[in-house]
Structures are given as structure tokens and as C-alpha cells.
Specification:
229 residues; Rossmann fold; 8 strands; 47% helix; single chain; five-stranded parallel β-sheet; alpha/beta
């Protein structure tokens, strides 16, 4: 049975790190809408320029555009066995569209990673991204590497702060996220596969909790219990 995991959480909650770990554990692709949008920006298409302006202002990309991007990505062969979605859905409209995409493809396992805003601001203002390979590194307390390092430990590229990781934009992104995703969390709380995880734990502890939950609910779903409300 395909494993379809949706990770929900504000920027800086550690979703990317956990998504990569889950993908290695279960042999399914990580689908990061943030990565897809950044790739569009680098190509400097008309769509990419619109996305860049939206992200730089701390706003969310329109529902219809995000739904189109994700639908195309889920149609690719590597997503047939499931996926870990990082960054989508962010609204109830997007969640309803994802439900329609999932007909006949197994249950959705929605998981919220919860981290207080002051910690999110600290993580994001210290975050660094490799210019060459795109790897992300956060503050040492999060266990993701030192942001003061100027050379990427993976490829040797230059580590830079993201344009949208200054304090003012970070705070605005948190406000927009909280405002728009509160109904999304309420929507997914109806699912018997739903979970809320404490993201202040160490990355290893978060991974262990995620894995335990996923294996519990997927076993229940394969035994015939409901996976959707």
C-alpha cells in the first residue's frame, strides 16, 4: 500500500530534515513545493518571477498554482509508491484538491510539527543554504550544522542566507502561516491518521515519533480501519 505523508509546520519547524529521513526509511520521494518553486525562480520564467515576488514579500503562492504544480509532480512514476509532501497543502482548498488526487492511492497521513514562534525566528535567521547543491543548515542546537560555516560540508559550495530569512519577513511568514493553516489543521484533525508532534525535540527524537505514528496508522489502515473521515 502506498505511503502518503503530509508534513505540516511553519518555516523553520524542521520539516525538510524529517522529510528527507522518512524518504530514506520508506523508499519514497520527498516532494518539496519550496524546492519546486525555487527551481522555477532560478529558470527566470514568467511564473518564476511572479513566485519570487510573492515569496520575497512573505506571502503564500495562490492555491490554483500550487495545486497545478503538485498534481503534475504526483503524476510522475516515482510517486506511485507514495511520497512525503513538504509545504503542501497549506490551505483547506489545497487539502481538498489533494484528497481528490489520492482517490485509489491509499490513505493520507497528515502530521503537524509544532515549534514556538521565538524558536522559529531564531532558526530561520541563522539558517544558511548552499549556493551550489541547495543543502540547508541550521543552528547547532537543532543538530543541522553550524550557520557560521562559510563552506558547505557536502559539496564545498558557498553557504548564504536566504533572501526571505531576515527577521521582519520571518515574522510575517509566521503570521501568514498561522492565519491560513489553522483551518487546515482543523480539517486534518478529523483524520484518524492525524498526529501533532513536538518539534522542539532533537531531530532523532522527532524522527522516532514520526516513524512510530506512521507505522501504527498504516498498520491500522491495512487492517481495514478508516483512514479518512
Amino acid at each position: 500500500m502506498p505511503l502518503n505523508v503530509v508534513l505540516i509546520g511553519p518555516p523553520g519547524a524542521g520539516k525538510g530534515t524529517q522529510a528527507e529521513r522518512l524518504c530514506r526509511l520508506y523508499g519514497i520521494p520527498r516532494i518539496s513545493t519550496g524546492d519546486i518553486l525555487r527551481e522555477a525562480i532560478q529558470k527566470d520564467s514568467s511564473f518564476g518571477r511572479d513566485v519570487h515576488e510573492t515569496i520575497a514579500a512573505g506571502r503564500l503562492v495562490a492555491d490554483d498554482l500550487m495545486i497545478h504544480v503538485v498534481k503534475d509532480r504526483l503524476a510522475q512514476d516515482d510517486a506511485r509508491r507514495g511520497y512525503v509532501l513538504d509545504g503542501f497543502p497549506r490551505t483547506v482548498v489545497q487539502a481538498q484538491a489533494l484528497d481528490q488526487m489520492m482517490d485509489g492511492r491509499g490513505p493520507i497521513v497528515p502530521i503537524v510539527v509544532v515549534v514556538p514562534e521565538p524558536e522559529l525566528v531564531r532558526r530561520l535567521t541563522l539558517r544558511r543554504v548552499c549556493h551550489d547543491c541547495g543543502a540547508t543548515f541550521g543552528p547547532p542546537a537543532v543538530g543541522l550544522g553550524s550557520p557560521s560555516t562559510q563552506q558547505c560540508p557536502r559539496c564545498g559550495g558557498v553557504l548564504l542566507a536566504r533572501e526571505d530569512d531576515n527577521a521582519a519577513i520571518v515574522v510575517e511568514r509566521q503570521r501568514v502561516f498561522a492565519e491560513r493553516t489553522k483551518p487546515l489543521v482543523a480539517y486534518y484533525q478529523q483524520y484518524p491518521t492525524f498526529a501533532s508532534i513536538d518539534g522542539l525535540q532533537t531531530p532523532d527524537a522527532v524522527t522516532a515519533v514520526l516513524r512510530s505514528h506512521i507505522e501504527t496508522v498504516t498498520t491500522a489502515s491495512s487492517d481495514g480501519n478508516r483512514a479518512r473521515p
